[in-house]
Write a structure and sequence with these properties.
The complex is a heterodimer of chains A (203) and B (273). With 203 residues, chain A is mainly alpha-helical. Chain A has helices spanning 14-22, 26-48, 51-67, 78-100, 105-108, 125-129, 134-144, 147-158, 163-170, 174-202. Chain A folds into 2 domains: 1-102, Orthogonal Bundle (Rna Polymerase Sigma Factor, Chain: A), CATH 1.10.1740.10; 103-203, Orthogonal Bundle (Arc Repressor Mutant, subunit A), CATH 1.10.10. The chains are: A mainly alpha (203), B mainly alpha (273).
């Protein structure tokens, strides 16, 4: 890991790098980690809502990549393969946490759930999004979504993967991806409205 | 209006979210995790290798742990022991037969112990008083039928021909005493004529005994006769040499003694003359 490879890996594509790593070039692995560590941490943070957990899962993902490097075949795009690993890790972690904690994130918003249906006219979430706490509330809204909606919205709107990539990562048809994204956005909008409504009520 | 356009406001909000970066210690943590995993992997592979290297005894002990396999194991062990014992016995008997055959090839005389005993038993049967008398008898036999003896000695007795040995025995026992007696009688007569004065029987017998003991036949004192004796002795020696070693040794020694005695007697005679 520490070895400073003299070769410049920047011009290499992800697929070339993983092929080189398959030929025991650890420098290529380091380059892959450098390219994807921030992206993965960000993606996993948006998915889990916890920085530590995000870092832990992303490290686990890279470790899996290290162990199972030979399982990668050139059929799939490397980023898709890596996101699939990360997502599977995140899902298993989420299930573990769900088992351990009796109170889920959804329970946190249970009291205000009935307010989702009512929209206040004096509150504009777009204006409030400019505020410093915007990201915090959005994250809250994302976390309030169910697992399926959360993962697809993060992949599409945060990681900016195209539909085909998402379809491959989640192993679902393209049409399902489209419909699922729409539903996820709709529920996110509702979630955000409810959060801001609750916030305005508290004010 | 596309699906993306429908929700542009939310998607833009999501895109505007600050991008989180990995912490500084991310790489070092990952490095330590990889090292840990590698050490674990080597441990696992080592364990797997050791498991693969498990000996037969370990596998057998594993089988024995299953109680329902005990009778099968018992039968197997019994069969193995039985097989081993039979094989061992077969091998032993084969070795014995082989050794016997080798011994037979090397020493055919050993097959018939009577043949070995012959030269020792003979004198006691014929004349147990003295061993030298035997030598005289043998000498006489050589004189009478040197060829015959050589032939019998050239063809060593075998286990398959015990009758021939018996025949040889009888031949020796029957033929041997008669010429000695004849020679003795002739010897005494000649001795009497030569001495003339001493007609005492005791003296005669003494002289006879002395001369018999010396192994010299006074009736055959001529030089050419002694040469024929030597020749016959040599021929018998040659014949003996061809025969088997144990017999050869016995007969050779005896012949040597005989030859020495003959030579001594000749010398004495020459001295007397």
């Amino acid at each position: 890991m520490q070895e400073k490879s003299k070769t410049d890996y920047r011009p290499f594509t992800d697929e070339q790098l993983i092929l080189q790593f398959q030929n025991e070039d650890k420098g290529a692995y380091v380059e892959i980690v450098m390219r994807y560590k921030d992206r993965l941490v960000n993606f996993l943070y948006r998915f889990t809502g916890n920085r530590e957990t995000a870092e832990d899962i992303s490290q686990e993902t890279f470790l899996k990549l290290y162990k199972n490097k030979d399982k990668y075949s050139e059929i799939a795009k490397f980023s898709t393969w890596l996101y699939t690993i990360a997502l599977n890790e995140a899902r298993s972690n989420f299930r573990k946490e769900k088992k351990h904690s009796a109170v889920s994130i959804n329970d946190y918003y249970e009291d205000s759930h009935n307010d989702y249906q009512i929209r206040s006219d004096d509150y504009n979430p777009e204006e409030d999004a400019n505020a410093e706490t915007e990201s915090f509330y959005i994250q809250k809204a994302i976390s309030s979504l169910n697992e399926i909606h959360r993962e697809i919205i993060v992949l599409r709107d945060i990681e900016e993967l195209d539909y085909e990539e998402i379809a491959k990562t989640l192993d679902i048809p393209l049409g399902t991806v489209r419909s699922r994204i729409n539903r996820a956005r709709e529920s996110l909008k509702v979630s955000l409205d409810s959060i801001y409504r609750a916030k305005s009520k508290n004010k | 209006m596309t699906e993306d356009e429908k929700y542009t406001d939310i998607s833009e909000q999501l895109k505007r979210l600050p991008k989180l970066k990995a912490s500084d210690g991310f790489m070092s943590k990952l490095e330590s995790r990889i090292a840990e995993a590698e050490s674990e992997r080597t441990y696992v592979t080592k364990k797997h290798y050791e498991k693969e290297k498990e000996g037969i005894l370990d596998k057998i002990s594993m089988w024995i742990k299953n109680p329902w396999l005990a009778p099968a194991m018992g039968i197997l062990i019994f069969a193995f022991i039985a097989l081993y014992v039979t094989q061992f016995n077969r091998h032993e008997t084969f070795n014995e037969t082989k050794q016997e055959s080798i011994q037979q090839d090397k020493n055919p005389v050993m097959q018939n112990p009577e043949v070995n005993k012959k030269p020792e038993e003979k004198p006691s049967a014929i004349n147990p008083s003295s061993t030298e008398s035997n030598t005289i008898k043998e000498n006489s036999e050589l004189r009478q039928s040197p060829k015959k003896q050589s032939v019998t000695e050239l063809n060593p007795p075998s286990a398959s021909e015990p009758e021939t040995n018996n025949f040889k025995k009888t031949e020796i026992s029957t033929e041997a005493p008669s010429p000695v007696i004849e020679e003795k009688s002739s010897f005494t007569k000649k001795d009497d004529s030569k001495v003339g004065v001493d007609k005492d029987n005791s003296v005669k017998s003494k002289n006879a005994d002395e001369e018999v003991n010396s192994g010299v036949m006074k009736s055959k004192t001529s030089v050419p006769e002694t040469t024929t004796e030597e020749q016959t002795g040599r021929s018998s020696m040659e014949a003996l040499e061809k025969s088997d070693e144990p017999l050869k040794m016995n007969v050779r020694d005896k012949l040597k003694v005989l030859n020495k005695k003959n030579l001594d007697s000749l010398k004495k005679k020459i001295d007397k003359k």
